[in-house]
Amino acid sequence: MALRPGNYIDGAWEAGTGSGDGITVLDSASATVVETLRPAGADQLERAVAAARRAQREWSAVPVPERVAFLRRLADRLAAREDELAAVMSKEVGSTLAFSRSVQVGLSIATIRGTADALAELPLDERVDNVTVVREPVGVVGAITPWNYPIYQVVAKLAPALAAGCAIVVKPSQVAPLSSVLLFEEIEALGLPAGTANLLTGTGRVIGEALVAHPDVDMISFTGSTEAGARIAATAAATVKRVALELGGKSASVVLDDADVARSVRGTLGSCFSNGGQTCSALTRLVVPRSLQTEVEAEIRAAVAEVVVGDPSDPRTVVGPMASAEQRETVNSYIELGLSEGARLLAGGISDDPGGRSGGGGYYVTPTVLTDVKSGMRVAQEEIFGPVLVVIPVDDTEEAVEVANDSEYGLSGAVWSGDEDRAVAVARRIRTGQVAVNGGAFSARAPFGGVKKSGNGRELGRYGLEEYFEYKAIRL
Ligand code: NAD
User: Fold this and answer.
1) How distant is the alpha carbon of residue 299 from its chain centre?
2) 107-156 pLDDT per residue, tens
3) Residues of CATH 3.40.309.10 domain(s) within the chain?
4) Which residues span the membrane (predicted)?
5) Residue 148 beta carbon below 6 angstroms from any ligand 1 atom
6) Which residues are registered as beta bridge partners of 9?
7) What mean pLDDT do residues 19-38 have?
8) Closest ligand 1 atom to 249 CA
9) With a 6 A CB cut-off, is 70 part of the ligand 1 pocket?
10) pTM, whole model, 2 decimals?
């Protein structure tokens, strides 16, 4: 594909100056090369941070209504380029085209619009007693993002950072950087002051670490694995910068004994298998009362039998390929591990030819459900990041809550019940950043983020915007 080079620095596109191998982006459905980019070099990181530092002063003086208008125009421009963006992310990640359109692009647009609305409504000055509390931009933000929702995760940081009057240096995942190049083409077209938004394509170890350690970067907003997040927090501590972390998850879906079984099973599988299971907030542990286990298992078998694994561009496909060969290996090794730990295979399993697709060379796996899983098993504790659901039977609601909270993660969750009040009471006892009651829909204006090893800080809407301000108290 004809594409700009992977770096946008101080208002100009540049090929990377970094040494070592190029960054090769593969088509998940065919394992063929889509594009190879030269990685950014240390000199480019220096120039990007210096440009951001300089531009931040100019950008923060731009009046709020103009910043709101910039965000709204960016959202409109992405909407106009929906097909192209969706096709690129379908290749980078393996998302089905339909999902790429509705979620990868759709949620990105909703996130930018939600941020614009939040900025329009937020008072930048507030009065407390004799004090004027002023919201001031944090300064220069470094954003580091993963591959599974490549532009959504960038705009969940870029939109509020720019809204608050910060400048930003974005380092997207080296697995899926192409959609960010398209995003930055649209940012370029809007004519921000040069240096306000910069893009560096590089690896975590080189560009990511240098961005985190840089003394002129005031804040790092990171989304990715818990392991990398912990390392980033430690590195950032040396310069005492602000750090926001959106990390992994192992979210529980708790079915109460009065729940609609079909609805709860199908809702859970829909979440678990969405984006091929490559979703941090996916519901991956189904906690069911033993009294309903047989009925739940029958429903799971029927529902999984309907799941079409295949080419992401085929509209019938529900689960496309994994993003990479590494991801496919991880998923298959966890299925094997679960069986060796004593889980029973309810649906799926390891196949030589998932969905009849492996001849095509893509990174396909078979959507799988393991049952009779105990909460202490590794398959119930570790993030698999693929279409694998574990079913954990429990005796009662107390045990269900205990199992739901028996995780080092705390990102999301679900409760299903015929009685909404009862479900909400259980939702309040689950220690996570979000809980869906009876399939309650995701909102791009409500706070998203985790507790425990799922991270800290919140993204989206007013809550995400607040992360990019410092408060100054002027005593009068
Ligand atoms: P990853 O942690 O390997 O990489 C994420 C990003 O960090 C990449 O851009 C990478 O280059 C960079 N990076 C890696 N090590 C770094 C370091 N030491 N210093 C600086 N940068 C570094 O994660 P991934 O494999 O790309 O994504 C999958 C993970 O992301 C999963 O664990 C998933 O749960 C998590 N995730 C979390 C959320 C959330 O909002 N909580 C959303 C999506 C994904």
Assistant:
1) 29
2) 999 999 999 999 999 999 999 999 999 999 999 999 999 999 999 999 99
3) 251-443
4) none
5) yes
6) 12
7) 90
8) 34
9) no
10) 0.96
Residue pair 240/138 in contact (Cβ under 8 Å)? The answer is no
Residue 359 confidence (pLDDT) = 61
Measured CA to CA, the distance from residue 64 to residue 469 in angstroms comes to 14
Percent of the chain with pLDDT over 90: 93
Token pair 């939600």 in the structure block, residue: 114
Q: CA gyration radius for the chain?
A: 22
Chain centre distance of CA 267 = 20
Q: Is the CB of 459 under 6 A from ligand 1?
A: no
- Provide the pairing of β-strand 242-246 with 219-223: parallel
Ranges in the chain annotated CATH 3.40.605.10? 7-247+453-475
The CA dihedral of 157, 163, 167, 172, to the nearest 10 degrees, is 20
Task: Kindly report the average pLDDT of the chain as a whole number.
Answer: 96
Q: Where are any strands of DSSP class E within 38-84?
A: none
Return the CATH fold of 7-247+453-475: Aldehyde Dehydrogenase; Chain A, domain 1 (3.40.605)
What is the pLDDT, as a whole number, of residue 183? 98
Distance, CA 225 to ligand 1 centroid (Å)?
A: 4
Q: How far, in Å, is the centroid of ligand 1 from the Cα of 157?
A: 14
Centre of ligand 1 to C-alpha 421, Å, is 36
Report whether pLDDT(41) > 90: yes
Q: Which of 93, 180, 205, 225 to mutate to test the pocket of ligand 1 (most atoms within 8 A of CB)?
A: 225
